[in-house]
Amino acid sequence: MSGVREALRDTVLVCDGAMGSMLYQTFGHLRCTDEVNLTHPESVLKIHLEYITAGAQIIETNTFGANRVKLAAYGLADKTVEINQRAVKLAREAREIAGREVFIAGSIGPVGTLSETLEEPTVPALTEAYQEQARALEDRGVDLFMVETFPSLAELLCCLRALRGASRLPVVAQLTFTEEATTPTGVSPRAAAEALRPLGLAAFGLNCSVGPGDTLGILREMAAAADGHPLSAQPNAGFPSRVAGRIVYPASSPEYFANFAQEAARLGARIVGGCCGTAPAHIRAMVEAVRYLSPARPVTVAAAPEVAEEIHAPSTELSPFARKLRAGTFLRLVELDPPKGIVLDRVLEAAKGLKDAGCVDAVDINSGTLARIQLDSLMMAIAIERRVGIETVPHLTTRDMSVMGLQSALMGAWAVGGIRNILAITGDPPALGDYPQARGVFEIDSIGLVQLIQRLNQGLDYAGKVIGPPTAFTVGVAVNPTAQDLDTEMRRFARKVAAGAQFAMTQPLFAPELWTDFLKLLGRPPIPIIVGVWPLASYKQALRLHNEVPGIMVPDRIQDLMKQAGAEARAEGLRIAREVYATVRETAAGVYVIPPFHRYEEALAVLA
After folding, report:
1. 237, 267, 290 — which closes off a domain?
2. Distance from C-alpha of 137 to C-alpha of 88, rounded to nearest angstrom
3. Are residues 242 and 358 in the same domain?
4. Segment 557-560 long-range contacts (CB within 8 Å, at least 24 positions apart)
5. Is the pLDDT of residue 57 over 50?
6. How much is the pLDDT for 228?
7. What is the pLDDT of residue 238?
8. Are residues 277 and 339 in the same domain?
């Protein structure tokens, strides 16, 4: 295995996540986390293995506070070498059991100086403590030192000098920062980078204390003074709170950390990972997010850059769909799937039939459902609007295009195709479809896509550059009232609204109570919500949708009704769909109907 410096030239390495908070979940309050290496080594080994299995390329020893000064407070000073060496042994065992080549980083934390002026008598004691710990770690076989969570730049520099006097192993140095973007001792990210840049470190950066959002802002300032030097970033899951006597961290989603990892890489981070409150799921998401990145191939993610140029006033040219939304008109849509080939006749015939019926306001157009190849939804929308003259709401997924490609496609759809409405979705992963070996792009998610579209609506590209006259897309998002993790779904929905979403469309709901229960949970909808209705055609279809299609739930009651209907199942499915339609008619902004087996006439039967 090549050294860590060589690896950082070629790739972005993902470090593991929290050790202390993972142990806290198992044991509760511990008098000394480092002592667990001796008292419960199997727990430390298990956590290492979970992180390696998640894909971590660097794992840290459980030695953050294992220096003589700190251990003395627990009567463990005489076990300093033993605790450090046992920690390395456990990490090496995990590497051997997993059968994967990972770097083992010896974790070294601060004694805890909260000053930028070290008293002269303090320096020798600190130096001795750090050198003792470093030698114990190196003697047992670490690959590098991870010097982390230092609140004082002065103490960090003291530690780094001590390490250079005891070892030639590579060193990653990380300070900790507050919400005010300074260390607790008042040092700015730029000043820290300027002090650390000349020291020959493998990487430097920050960890702990703040979450991914604040970390990116601090990392951006560091990068401005780093002169291309490799950076590192390992944020907390967020700010902890005390609940029923326990420390609880926010349930930051793995997807959120994946977005963070990509943005951090764009800013120059060659090492990304997690700190307090993070878990193997966060690391797994970051590994996937940066798997195909290299330091020379930056990307953009959901957190939009700062606007650097003048913002145009938004265009007032709203679509008929948007005007109806604003007026509170109940909207009726029918969903159409683009063809799998290049023959448009059937879809155009369906669109014409819907227009001629006179009871459909617009058609929404799927985009690569279940990651299967179909004609592009934007192109299909343009064809329908030009040839049929009915308004469209095409879905747009971030799976298939980079940020640059998404912007180009949207500008073309606006300027050339006359498209005015978009449903922003993240999209199903390629693993679900006919090309499981393909790699999804996912440079941003649906939240980032809403932000991107709203930038275009201000006459700016995603990087804040002026593009000329603004667009005026009406942008919608998906929301799933039957999501398994409804708390996460609601948090993401709130973020979508905050990003600028103007309406939402639900997953198809197969029972009236699914909508009424969701309304009780949601309260007054923050934006208009259009409810999906899908007339079931058979009991078998109900079973397949419930058990095989991600995000869809058919209640047991509805499954039983479809089963009991027997040969009349299609009529029963239509009756249930009409019942859902009648329920949402009074409280939703509209409905969209999914025609069973592309029979648009049955969608009209629901709306009738």
Report:
1. 290
2. 7
3. no
4. 557/511, 558/510, 558/511
5. yes
6. 93
7. 64
8. no
User: Global pTM?
Assistant: 0.53
Whether 247 and 327 share a structural domain: no
Indicate whether 256 and 328 sit together in one domain: no
Q: Is residue 241 part of a domain?
A: yes
503: phi then psi, degrees, rounded to nearest 5: -160, 170
Contacting residues for 180 by C-beta, under 8 A, at least 6 apart: none
d(CA 599, CA 313) in angstroms, rounded, equals 43
Q: What is the pLDDT of residues 150-160, one digit of tens each?
A: 999 999 999 99
**Taking all residues of the chain, what is their mean pLDDT, rounded to a whole number?**
90
Do 119 and 16 reside in the same domain of the chain? yes
pLDDT digits (tens, 9 = 90+) for 318-343: 899 999 999 999 999 999 999 988 99
How many Cβ atoms are within 10 Å of 389's Cβ, its own excluded? 10
- Three-state secondary structure string covering 25-86: HHHCCCCCHHHHHHHCHHHHHHHHHHHHHCCCCEEECCCCCCCHHHHHCCCCHHHHHHHHHH
- Which residues 6+ apart lie within 8 Å of 378 measured at CB? 394, 396, 409, 412, 413, 417, 419
Question: Burial level of 464, CB count in 10 A (0-12/13-18/19+)?
Answer: middle
Q: What is the CATH number of the domain that holds 169?
A: 3.20.20.330
Number of structural domains in the chain? 2
Is residue 236 within 8 A of residue 211, CB to CB? The reply is yes
What pLDDT digit, counting tens, does each position of 460-507 carry? 888 887 787 899 999 999 999 999 999 999 999 999 999 999 999 999
Q: What is the pLDDT of residues 371-396, one digit of tens each?
A: 788 899 999 999 999 999 999 999 99
DSSP state of 574: H
- Domain range spanning residue 108? 4-290
